[in-house]
């Protein structure tokens, strides 16, 4: 079993930056697919980025060049660096994990992940 706890959300002006963190505890997530999703009010949950234990990562086109996903060497903290934030980035951001590698055709689907954090709010205005 894996527990995920996000932190680092907040309010920022357009063009600003935030760093989100996700602390993983419980079972080791060394070989897990780890991902960030976001959900704005009235919208579906949207994939932002994912990373495998070997560092292979994927990033959604909507945030490519502005957001970066990374994981510490101990695989206990997942980070999302967000730069050049836009009002449309406003959402609740969730950390997710699944006990398999991320695959190119499935990492974007919330149903591909078993474990979820409670979310952290990001507001850009």
Description:
By secondary structure, this protein is mostly beta strands. It is 0% helix and 48% strand. The protein is built from no helices and eleven strands. The protein has strands spanning 2-7, 10-12, 18-26, 33-39, 46-51, 57-59, 67-71, 77-82, 91-98, 115-116, 120-124. Strands 2, 4, 5, 6, 9, 10 and 11 form a seven-stranded mixed sheet that branches. A four-stranded antiparallel sheet has the order 1-3-8-7, with no helix packed on it. It is globular. The mean pLDDT is 95.
What descriptors fit this protein?
mainly beta, globular, seven-stranded mixed beta sheet
Explain briefly what this protein structure is.
The protein has 125 residues and is an all-beta fold.
């Amino acid at each position: 079993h894996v527990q995920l706890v996000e932190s680092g959300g907040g309010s920022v002006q357009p063009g600003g930056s935030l760093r989100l963190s996700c602390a993983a505890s419980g079972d080791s997530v060394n070989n897990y697919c780890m991902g960030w999703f976001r959900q704005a009010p009235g919208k579906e949950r949207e994939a932002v980025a994912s990373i495998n234990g070997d560092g292979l990562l994927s990033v959604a086109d909507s945030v490519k060049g502005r957001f970066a996903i990374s994981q510490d060497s101990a695989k206990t903290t997942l980070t999302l660096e967000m730069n050049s934030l836009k009002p449309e980035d406003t959402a609740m951001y969730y950390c997710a994990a699944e006990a398999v590698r991320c695959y190119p055709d499935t990492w974007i689907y919330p149903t591909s992940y078993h474990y979820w954090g409670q979310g952290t709010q990001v507001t850009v205005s």
